[in-house]
Amino acid sequence: MKAFISSLFSAAGQQKEENGEEKNAEKNKIYGTWQVGAALAKAPKRMRAAFQQLQLSQELHNYLAKAAVLNLDTDGLNQDESGFQRHVDHPEVPEHVYWEGYFHLLDHSRPEPSLHPRFGFMADKPAGPVELRAFAEAFRAKNKATFEAAVAGNNAGSKFLKSLVDRNWHFADCAIQYHSGKGIEGNDIAWHHDAENSALHLALAVRGKRTLHAKLAQTANSEQEALELFPQQAGDVYVSTPFCFEHGVQYSDTTRTEHGEGTIIACQIRFLFTAALYAQGQKATNSSCCDMMESIADALEQHPLVLPTLQEVQEVERKWEKQGAQ
C-alpha cells in the first residue's frame, strides 16, 4: 500500500531544523480560490487546500471492485432500482456517456433520508454495497485522530463539521460514476468547485484511467494559479478539499462492451447531509470558511492518512454480520 503527498503538497513540518523549527513551512502550503458571493466580497480570495494521494493494496482493490454495483451492464444501470441516473454534463460531446448512482456508506443497510448531492432534494438514499461501507467505516476508524483534528477549530464551520464527524457522517455519501464513449479533454473539461459536502472528500478509482486537473497556488497572495494534473488509475485514492479549489476531470476515449468492460468507474465520497444540515452548513461555512479550511489543511498536511487493509475491512463486515447490521 502506497501513501504519499507529492512534493508540491508535502506535509508542512516534514522538513525540520535540528532545533525543531519548521523549514519552509509556508512553501509546503497550497491554496485554492473560493467562489465568494456578494455578501462575502471582502473575504480573502484564497483559502488553504490540501491533497493526499494514496493507493489501495492490490488485494483490497480487487475485493472492492467485485461489488455488484461496480459491475453493472447497461441494462443493469437502466433498472429503476439500480440507484443510477444518466446525466449530460457535456452536451457539446453527445458521444460521452455518464451514469451516476447515489448511496450512503453508514454502518447499516437501511435507506437513509438524506440530501441528493446533485439535485438538492431529500430522498431515501439506499445503502451502498457492504464492501464499500465497510471500507469507509475502517478508513474513518483508522484515521480517527486526524479527522478529529481537522474539525477541532474554534469557528462555526469547524464546529458544524465536527457534529458530522461525531456521528460518522464523514465519507458517508457516495456517488458512483460510470463514464464511457467519447473522451472529455481540453476545452471540454467542466471546471467547477464542489459544494460544502466536499470540504473533505475521498475519490476512489475503481476501473480505467482519468486525470484530475486542479488550479492551485503556492501562497495566499499569489496572483495566478498553476495547473496541476493528477492522473488516476484503478486502485488510486486521493483525499482532498475540492470545495475550495477549481478543478475538472479529463476522460480518455473508451469503448464499452455489452458486459460493461471499457468503462471508467470512480467513487466520489463526501460528507452526508440532510436538507437541514446543508442549510446549516452553508451558514456556518460562509461565516468562517477560511478558518475552517485552515484547520482541515493543517491536519491533513501534518498527519498522512492510512488506508485500511483488506483484513481490516473484512473485520468490519464480520462485526456487522454478528450485529445483524449488514
Write the layout of secondary structure elements.
Elements: E1 2-4, E2 30-33, E3 46-49, E4 51-55, H1 58-65, H2 74-78, E5 84-87, E6 96-104, E7 112-115, E8 122-125, H3 130-142, H4 144-150, H5 156-166, E9 173-181, E10 201-207, E11 210-216, E12 226-232, E13 236-240, E14 247-251, E15 264-270, H6 275-302, H7 310-323
Antiparallel strand pairs: 1-4, 2-3, 4-13, 5-6, 6-9, 7-8, 9-15, 10-13, 10-15, 11-12, 11-14
| Spatial sequence of strands, sheet with the most strands | 1-4-13-10-15-9-6-5
Instruction: Report Rg.
Output: 19 Å
Quaternary organization: single chain
Number of strands: 15
Mean pLDDT: 87
Distance between the termini: 27 Å
Query: Which word captures the global form?
Result: globular
Helical fraction equals 25-40%
Which class best fits the helix and strand makeup? Answer: alpha+beta
Sequence stretches where pLDDT stays below 50 over 5 or more residues: 1-25, 36-44
**Beta-strand percentage range:** 25-35%
- In sequence order, what are the helices and strands, one letter per element? EEEEHHEEEEHHHEEEEEEEHH
- Tally of individual helices: 7
Mind describing the biggest β-sheet? Answer: 8 strands, antiparallel
